[in-house]
Design goal:
Blueprint: E1 12-15, E2 30-33, E3 37-43, H1 49-52, E4 61-67, E5 71-75, E6 97-101, H2 104-110, H3 112-116, E7 121-126, E8 131-136, E9 138-145, H4 148-158
Antiparallel strand pairs: 1-6, 2-3, 3-4, 4-9, 5-8, 6-7, 7-8
Amino acid sequence: MSHAPQSSEQDQVVLMDDIPHPDRDTSAPFVLANERLVAIVYRIAEADFERFGPFSDDDPFCVIAFMSAAFHQFGPPRDADLPAYFLTSKGLRGYSAHEVMRSSLVEDSWGPEYSLEGGLRHFVLTFGDSTFECVAGDCTVAGIYGNGDIAAREAFSLCQ
């Protein structure tokens, strides 16, 4: 299933302030998934260290969990191509986490009843070389860890 860019007026992009911003230089995100949960791991932007810390000598990574996941993908656009992406005019920003309210992806793929009553939500995280999209029941910070190895182990344990 791919979500072709379109010019839908219904999509409304909202910045999620409770999800850490990815680091611009070394975010190197990766995903672990099973049939019910998707976890994405990435390095936190230094600007968020104080908000999600304190961190001293740590290299903090977060695990973001998407519960009751129905769809996920990594792909275009990369950060340099965001200006041409149809969601950018709706508020999508680089190196950030977003929720797409009244999502055309959810309505076109599962029907309007799933975006209103069915509990499927559309999330978009933007990184340097890719964009991550996930349709799921919910999204939360599952944990923030002092380094990538610990975060990877914790993400793996969530998906077992």
